[in-house]
Amino acid sequence: MTTTSIPALDLSRIVGRLRPEVEARWQKLMGANAFVGGAEVEELERAFAGYLGSNGCVAVANGTDALVLALRALGAGPGDEVIVPAFTFVATAAAVSLVGATPVFADVDPATLNLDFGCAEDLVTTDTVGVIGVHLYGCPFDVERAAGLCERHSLWLLEDAAQAQGAAVGGRRVGNFGQLATWSFYPTKNLGAFGDAGAVSGNDDQLLERVRLLANHGAVGRYRHAVVGSNSRMDALQAAVLNCRLPLLEADNDRRRAIAAGYRRSLAGVAGLRLLEVPPGATSVFHQYTVLTERRDQLQTFLAERGIGTAVHYPEALHLQPAFADLEVTELPVATAAGPMSLCLPMYAELTDAEAATVAGAVREFFS
Question: Is residue 257 part of a domain?
Answer without folding.
Answer: yes
